[in-house]
Structures are given as C-alpha cells and as structure tokens.
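Project channel, design review

CF: Before we commit to the Gimesia maris constructs, I'd like one complete example in the thread so the newer folks can see what an input/output pair looks like. Taking DUF1573 domain-containing protein.
RD: sounds good, go ahead.
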Amino acid sequence: MLSKSSFRFGFLSACLFMLSTSSSFGQEWAQKMFDKDKIDFGVIARGSDAQYRLKIKNIYPSPVHISNVRTTCGCSAAEPSKNILESGEEGYIQVKMDTARFQRRKDSNVIITIDAPQYAEIRIPITAYIRTDVVFTPGSANFGSVEVGKGAETTVALAYAGRDDWAITGIQSKDPSLTVKAVETARGGGRVNYNLILTLAPNTPLGPIREQIMLKTNDVNFTTVPLLVEAKVESDITITPEVVSLGMMVPGQEKTVNVVLRGKKPFEINKIECESNDEAFKIRMPKTTQPIHVLPLTIVPPNKPGDYSEEFTVTIAGRGEPITFKAFGKISETKTN
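CF: and here is what came back for DUF1573 domain-containing protein:
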C-alpha cells in the first residue's frame, strides 16, 4: 500500500512531467516558424553595420502576437518588423551587433516572447567576432531610395591598422547590378586606407537590395571582410504595402483593407483590374488627380477554402507601364449563416 508521502511525490512528479511536456511542445510549436535556430555573423569589421533578419512565418490558422523581443547582451539589439502576424504572413526579427563599442568575440541571445495563440519563449543564440584592425566609415553602403532607371553611387572608407603589406585582393558580389571598386588612398606606418566605390546600374530591377559583399584580403587568418549593402529601387509610383495581407477570411464575410499609392507628382488612376474571374473584390475608384491615393479593397471571400491570392493591375493616365500588386490570404471552411 502506498504511503501518503509516496503518493504526493508521484503526483508532483506527474504534474512536473506534464508541465515540462506542455512547455516543450509550446517551444517546438513556435520554433517551427523561424528559418534559423542560431545567428552567426562570422568575422566582421569594427564600426560595420552588422545586421541580420531572422525570418518568421505564421504557418498556423490563428494570428501570432509577438509581445516582446530582447537580447541578453548590450553588444546586440533586436526588434520585430511587426508584432502581429496573420495566418500565412511573414515578418522578421532585426538583429544588430554593436560593433562601435564592442570588440573581439561576443556571444548573446535574442529572446522572442509570443503570447498568442499560446505562450512560448524562443531563444536564438548569436555569435560574432568583431575585428579591431579594420574599420568602415560609414558602417554600411546604404544607397537609400533610388529611382528606377537612374542608378546611384556611394563610397565607404576602409581603414586598416596592422601590417604594412595588407591589401584587398578581390571583391565578391552576388548582385550583377552592383559593381565595387577598391581604390587605395594611403599606405605606411602599418596603416592602409581604401575608398570602396559602389555603383548601382541604371538597369537595376525594382525592389529592395540587401546583400553582403565580401572583400578578399591577403590576411591568412581573416581572409574576407563582409560589408552590408542596402538600397531600395523604387518606381515613380510606389505601393504600400508591397504585398497585401488579407489574413484569415470567412466565406461570404466582407473584409476591407487599404492600399496606398504614392507618386513623385500628382497622377490619375484610369482603371484597376483583377487577374481572376472570381469577382470577389469591390474597389472604390478615386476620381481626383493627386500624389497619394488610398484604395479601399473590399473582398467577399468565395466558398473556396484554403490559400487565396489575387493580382491587381493599376493603369495610370499618361504612364506607359501599368503597376501591379498582389494580395494573399486564407479562406476558412466556416460559412456565415
């Protein structure tokens, strides 16, 4: 016969086991939404703009709410691109290393707290080695907003302190629209200086550019130095959001989202067309000529459960090429009465 103490111990053990199992399941549920389980910046230059976007996608039917994002070391910082992700929606956690105040090997964690549809806390390890002998000014090559068809140029200064014979031996870039030239400006007394001249071609496609170019060097210990390059090649008319999220929808239940069109000068919208024949959307056409148009898109979801998408074509008066954008969502199996 079991004693009272044995019964209490067994009951407590069972409770702890259930709690541990539930907690583990919660972490696993949330972990599946992230594309990485660790972040390694590798070897980076002092003063460089060292950033990483940890992608997250809501693969579940209910909205996901990110209640808090923090890091465990002052050498790093993180923030979400958005706090609420609808079903099927993507976002990212922007993680940044402080390469100005910290040096050499740094380890940290980014902790993401989710409180809906259930609680979970995800811990992603971060590691980086910040060099003390290479400094970028500014910390990245950021072209900012570039009008399509015009191209752009920017310069980043590199300063090295150490060996007299240190040199950049090559440059690796994955973007064919980007060319980089290293021009040596000074050498002597263990110091070497370069100007990195980056050029964005006029035929660069529309959209954001975010990549790391690699500077190859004759340093046998640290053969490459990464440099972040960012740009946003924009049309004369831009659309916000670039991809419209419709979230979870119910067949027959009306839903409205706003799309904003911004031009560098006033413009008139002639017509808006949908690619499909669902006739699920109603769009209130603006009748004025102005630089900003807000388009309310109202959808009555058809009885087609599952993923749903639509492509829109906007014809602008006096503009040869139309503008297109897409909307994505998911239709549930529940119907309205």
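RD: helpful, thanks. The first strand starts at residue 39 and ends at 46.
CF: The chain has a mean pLDDT of 88.
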